[in-house]
Amino acid sequence: MPQLLVLAAHPLETKYFPADIDLVLTGVGMSAAAVRTTEAVLSRCPDPARREEFTVLNIGSAGALKEGLSGVHEPSRILNRDVDEQLLRAAGIPVDNVIELGGPGPVLATGDSFVAGGPVRDALAARADLVDMEGYAIAVACRHLGVRLRMVKHVSDAADEAAIAWAEKVEVSARDLGAWFRDSGIAASRPAAPLS
């Protein structure tokens, strides 16, 4: 029987989700997200042979790195923005810091720092469309455990200086993500393909 686990970083992002769903709050940042995702999947589905029936839905807010990007999006690709690919490759170290989810959606860059403008934002905008702090870690955990993943992000801000007011802006994200969940029918379906 299909099983759905919803993951979000912060309780403010899940304010408009039904109370009866299986919801785990990962906390903010990649380490917490990876650990909590792994714990949640293993506690609910310890048998790897049964994980083909298991879907993780990661929802949350994200900063937009491109002008005019707003609303709800399903990323097509996620990258670990904290990895210096060029330096590691120059040192002869293989790099696996991109996960393909497929589809036409935007590219999501994940890292542990909060992006609020400046040169960091400018550099990221050349590589990605959205920025968050958990998506890549959740995707890595799901890939490692062999479970399906669907990721849905809502643009809460422009990852600029105004992003510091995230706690005030996330209400819109929570409302729109709740509406997306209600309208998607995801709780009654198997919506995602296995990660490659």
Automatic annotation (TrEMBL):
For biological process, the GO terms are:
nucleoside metabolic process
> What residue stretches are annotated with the Nucleoside phosphorylase domain?
107-163
Source taxon at top rank = Bacteria
GO MF entries: catalytic activity
Q: Name one Pfam family in it.
A: PNP_UDP_1
Q: Which Gene3D superfamilies match?
A: Nucleoside phosphorylase domain (3.40.50.1580)
Protein name, please? Nucleosidase
Say which species the protein is native to: Kocuria dechangensis
